[in-house]
Amino acid sequence: AERRCIKCCMDAFDVFDKAPAKSQLSDRRVIFPCYSMINAFSNSIAYTPPNNMSKEDFETTLAENFVKETRHQQYHQCRALAYQADTMKRHGKYEEAISVIDEMKSIYDPQLH
What we know:
Blueprint (H helix, E strand, L loop, with lengths): L1 H17 L13 H11 L12 H15 L4 H17 L3 H14 L6
Helix pairs in contact: 1-2, 2-3, 2-4, 3-4, 4-5
């Protein structure tokens, strides 16, 4: 079932990327659950990334795309940055992950919100 969910999310990304109206959307939350689902499953099941990509390249690209999609939506951007830091940590890029966490801290102060 998990592999079908990943496939479904990948198909959703493909449709979303090709949608002519995508550039007109200011709120792109419709696609965010797919990023979250793939992140959760990539930690728990074996899967084969598309297009002969390595897992590291695939996961890094997804994390970067999630961050891009969440610009100007503070809460979601922090989630995306946390996802990106988690991906970097899994692939041994600890210093880069710490930099992303610092960026996340500069955007969102839980004491204020």
